[in-house]
Amino acid sequence: METVLLVRYAEIHLKGLNRPYFERSLMGAISRALSPMPARVVREQGRIFVFDVPAEQAEAAADKLSRVFGVHSISIALAVEKDFDAIAEAAAALMAAAAGERACTFKVFARRADKRFPMRSQEICVELGGRLLDRFPALSVDVRNPELHVGVEVRQERAFVYVGEIMGPGGMPVGCNGKAMLLISGGIDSPVAGHMIAKRGVAIDAIHFYSYPYTSERARDKVVDLARIVSRYAGPITLYLIPFTEIQLTIYEKCPSTETTVLMRRLMMKIAERVANSCGAQALITGEAIGQVASQTIESLTVTNDAVTMPVFRPLIGFDKEEIVERAKAIGTFDTSILPYEDCCTVFVPQHPVTKPKVEKLRASEALVDFTEMIETAIKNAEIVKIHPHEN
Ligand code: ATP
Ligand code: MG
Fold first, then answer.
1. Cα 146 to middle of ligand 1, angstroms
2. What pLDDT was estimated at residue 348?
3. Taking each helix axis from N to C terminus, what angle separates 217-234 and 321-331, rounded to the nearest 10 degrees?
4. Ligand 1, closest atom to CA 188?
5. Is 185 in the pocket of ligand 1 (CB under 6 A)?
6. Could you count the other beta carbons within 10 Å of the beta carbon of residue 350?
7. Residues paired with residue 312 on neighbouring β-strands, in sequence order
8. 150, 132 in Cβ contact below 8 A?
9. DSSP code, position 238
């Protein structure tokens, strides 16, 4: 009996979108997630099958696939001969592993793609249910809300049998909806924002601004670690680390002190937009939420937005901090985010920041300095880190 992973996917019925393109993107994402494990990914009638994964690695493979966007759910199946006894035997072996002698409820689902198979789907369900009840006396059937799904799919070559399913994240395969540039700080919010946009099928590159020596090497490493965790979901990420000290010191020195934070945010956006354009990213992503800090009032967000023409995605805009923390914990970035290293925003924070900045006024303050050359230099001196998911 061969072990096979059966992958179900959702969101394929979207209007105007090309189904084979989605399926190919998803197959690519699945292959990348499993690499370097041996895996042959095949699409067949609304399902994706993964063959050649060694049986003892099937659970690890399913765990990886449970983080691939576009995956609805995964079952570890056994491929058997198209014979009812063989199907029942496989189901019993799987049930022994899943439930053993434990009391639990189940329901059998059957799909007969090969109509030459002599039993109809309904017959398979009834017969197989009966056999499992005989063999495992503690089991009972619950057709409404079963704890375990027992699945049988009879296909052209073989039949596939599974017990139970592991939920995937949903969403869409990364890369099928373009690419965006995530402004990543060392904080809690931005990695969560990147994860949310990647879930919609958007590939991610990331940009981080640091102010050495005011921020440390460890603060830099923390951001690389966060990008690495995001890449487990979002796939490969190119991370641009931009030296920001000169710009920051200049703002501090030459511009009104109440406006330094907002000006800094404008400069970050400008540089991010430039880098995004050069690497094919079509939008910027930030972890901002209304009212969280002085630089996130509607007025401040307006002024920040005014620095760029590229769309800015703020998926956390309506979230409470608690909701963001919950998500950060769920995706595994929280523990890294709360490590206590300083961020360049916190180093230079003004004592009385403006909370209602005006676009015209901030444009004028920014024009007090010609930043053109400093921006060029910062981009030229960027450190570029290529992050691959299977380094994780
Ligand atoms: P976070 O938890 O993501 O740090 P925050 O609540 O601390 O967010 P700010 O520090 O005002 O808020 O930053 C708002 C957003 O600006 C961040 O979510 C991030 O997208 C971006 N940002 C802030 N600092 C940096 C930085 N040093 N490099 C890149 N992007 C940054
Ligand atoms: Mg921050």
1. 44
2. 65
3. 80
4. 2
5. yes
6. 16
7. 284
8. yes
9. E
- In angstroms, how far is CA 107 from the centroid of its own chain? 32
Q: How many CB atoms lie within 10 A of CB 166?
A: 15
Q: pLDDT tens-digit profile of 319-363?
A: 999 999 999 999 999 999 999 876 666 666 677 788 899 999 999
Distance from C-alpha of 125 to C-alpha of 149, rounded to nearest angstrom: 11
0.70 surpassed by pTM: yes
Contact call for residues 112 and 124 (beta carbons, < 8 A): yes
Task: Say whether 6 sits in a helix, a strand or coil.
Answer: strand
Query: Are 168 and 74 within 8 A, CB to CB?
Result: yes
90: alpha, beta or left? (left if phi > 0; alpha if psi -120 to 50): alpha
Q: Is the CB of 187 under 6 A from ligand 1?
A: yes
> What pLDDT sits at residue 20?
82
Element (H, E) at 151: strand 148-154
pLDDT category of residue 19 using cuts at 50, 70 and 90: confident
